[in-house]
Design goal:
Number of strands: 8
Number of helices: 7
Distance between the termini: 17 Å
Radius of gyration: 16 Å
Oligomer: single chain
C-alpha cells in the first residue's frame, strides 16, 4: 500500500502558508471566503492537534477538485471539549451535507474522542467512509485501531499507463476504485474479509 506521507502533506501545507503564517490562520481565512457552502464532497474527520497536517490534507484533496468540510473552521462556535446535544446535532447536520467521510489517521488520531463517533455516525448514515493514513514514508504499513481495518483506505497514484495521479479508494492490495466511481456506490466496495 502506498500512503500519503507526512512530509508530502506538511510540504503542501507550507506551500499554502508560506513561512510567516500558521496553518490554522490560513484555514480560517479560507473558510471565511467560503462560509456559505452547504454541501461538500468530504467531511474531514481528524484530530485538532494536527492543524498543519489538516491544512495539507485539505489542500491535497482540493487539488483534486474536492470540497472539504473541517468542523472547527466552518463552525468555530463549536467547543469540541464540551460535548452537548446541540453541538452533536450541528455535526450530524454537517455530515448529512457531505458525500463522504475521510478519516485522517495520524499519530494523534487515537486520542480523539470525536473521530470514532463521527466514523460510526457517517457509516450508518451514508456508508461512504475511507481512511486516509498519513505515515512517515510512502510504503509504510498502516496500522490503526482494529475497527479501522473494515474500511477502505485512500491513496494517490496514476492509473495504468498514465503519469497523472488520482485519488483511489482501496480495499486491500488488489482492489481499487477511483474516488468518483467509489462515491457512487460505496457500500458495494467494503472489505468483507
Amino acid at each position: 500500500m502506498a500512503t500519503f506521507t507526512e512530509s508530502r502533506i506538511r510540504q503542501r501545507a507550507q506551500q499554502k502558508t508560506g513561512t510567516l503564517r500558521k496553518a490554522a490562520t490560513v484555514l480560517r481565512e479560507e473558510v471565511a471566503a467560503t462560509k456559505t457552502k452547504t454541501s461538500f464532497d468530504i467531511f474531514l474527520s481528524h484530530s485538532t492537534s494536527d492543524a498543519e497536517i489538516i491544512l495539507g490534507v485539505k489542500a491535497v484533496l482540493e487539488d483534486y477538485c474536492k470540497t472539504v468540510y473541517v468542523d472547527w473552521l466552518e463552525d468555530p462556535q463549536l467547543d469540541r471539549r464540551n460535548v452537548t446535544a446541540a453541538s452533536a446535532e450541528v455535526i450530524r447536520a454537517r455530515m448529512r451535507q457531505c458525500k463522504s467521510l475521510v478519516y485522517v489517521h495520524t499519530a494523534n488520531s487515537g486520542g480523539s474522542k470525536w473521530m470514532p463517533w463521527e466514523l460510526g455516525y457517517f457509516d450508518g448514515f451514508n456508508g461512504a467512509v475511507a481512511i486516509l493514513p498519513v505515515t512517515r514514508n510512502r510504503e509504510a504499513t498502516f496500522e490503526g485501531q482494529e475497527y479501522l481495518g473494515i474500511y477502505p483506505y485512500m491513496d494517490e497514484a496514476p492509473s495504468t499507463g498514465s503519469t497523472v495521479e488520482e485519488i483511489w479508494v482501496n480495499k486491500g492490495s488488489t482492489a481499487s476504485r477511483r474516488w468518483g466511481t467509489w462515491i457512487s456506490d460505496p457500500r458495494t466496495f467494503r472489505k468483507t474479509a
